[in-house]
Amino acid sequence: MERDLVEYIVKSIVDNPDAVNIKVIEGEKSTILELRVAESDIGKVIGKNGRIARAIRTILSAAASSQSKRVILEILD
């Protein structure tokens, strides 16, 4: 569910949605999402002063709180 949410948001933002790649690493109490986008789209995903990345993380943590799980979004270059 979290993967689909992040994928939908990021593909809506970037110019090259085919280059969006999300790897899910499951743990007992937490899930790590590793996000990779095209090099030209990294700035769009992070935003000025990290505002867009912070907003995506906020939405993600709100969606995951119903499952009592912690979700971490890592944006990789």
UniProtKB/TrEMBL annotation:
<keyword id="KW-0961">Cell wall biogenesis/degradation</keyword>
<keyword id="KW-0694">RNA-binding</keyword>
<dbReference type="Pfam" id="PF13083">
    <property type="entry name" value="KH_KhpA-B"/>
</dbReference>
<dbReference type="GO" id="GO:0071555">
    <property type="term" value="P:cell wall organization"/>
</dbReference>
<dbReference type="GO" id="GO:0005737">
    <property type="term" value="C:cytoplasm"/>
</dbReference>
<dbReference type="InterPro" id="IPR020627">
    <property type="entry name" value="KhpA"/>
</dbReference>
<comment type="similarity">
    <text>Belongs to the KhpA RNA-binding protein family.</text>
</comment>
<dbReference type="InterPro" id="IPR009019">
    <property type="entry name" value="KH_sf_prok-type"/>
</dbReference>
<comment type="subunit">
    <text>Forms a complex with KhpB.</text>
</comment>
<protein>
    <recommendedName>
        <fullName>RNA-binding protein KhpA</fullName>
    </recommendedName>
</protein>
<comment type="function">
    <text>A probable RNA chaperone. Forms a complex with KhpB which binds to cellular RNA and controls its expression. Plays a role in peptidoglycan (PG) homeostasis and cell length regulation.</text>
</comment>
<keyword id="KW-0143">Chaperone</keyword>
<keyword id="KW-0133">Cell shape</keyword>
<dbReference type="GO" id="GO:0009252">
    <property type="term" value="P:peptidoglycan biosynthetic process"/>
</dbReference>
<keyword id="KW-0963">Cytoplasm</keyword>
<dbReference type="InterPro" id="IPR015946">
    <property type="entry name" value="KH_dom-like_a/b"/>
</dbReference>
<dbReference type="GO" id="GO:0008360">
    <property type="term" value="P:regulation of cell shape"/>
</dbReference>
<dbReference type="GO" id="GO:0003723">
    <property type="term" value="F:RNA binding"/>
</dbReference>
